[in-house]
Amino acid sequence: MFSRTVEYALRAVAHLAYKAPEGRTTEQLAEATKVPRAYLSKVLQGLRRAGVVKSQRGVGGGVALVKSPSELTILEVVNAVEPIVRIKSCPLGLSSHGVRLCPLHKRLDNALAYVEEAFHSSTLAEVLAEPTSSIPLCDFPAAPKTAEPPLVPPPSAAKSSRRSS
Question: Which CATH number characterizes residue 74's domain?
Answer without folding.
Answer: 1.10.10.10
